[in-house]
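Quick illustration, no need to memorize.
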Amino acid sequence: MVEAFFWPDENSAIYFEYELSPWNFELPILVPNNKGTFLGWRPWHYENERKTRHATSIQKRGDTIQSWTAEFFIPYTLLKPLQKVPPTSGMKWRANFYRIDYDHGNNYWYWKPIKTNFHDYEKFGTIIFE
């Protein structure tokens, strides 16, 4: 599984999460999270110009998965009504990216370290748009 988190506005406790599995199943959600008071997540409706594009490729040897790759495109229109969307030059968003492997125990890779869980949004890294 790969996951991407985008938090465009640090003044709001709502961010966007996108998950994509090796089998090309996706889950776009909005997450209201107030200083660790996790309020669940909300499925985020997407269609027409708000629809994502994604693809995965699995490399197998016999019945065993050796590796897999994923790519996805998230249109800015999907991120509305979050604030600061679309970004302008010089704008900063907070974000984090994860790769999770449950096949051989729980293995996690991330762009920026987290303390408690993936929803430790105050530890997200910073993306600067040009």
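The radius of gyration is 16 Å.
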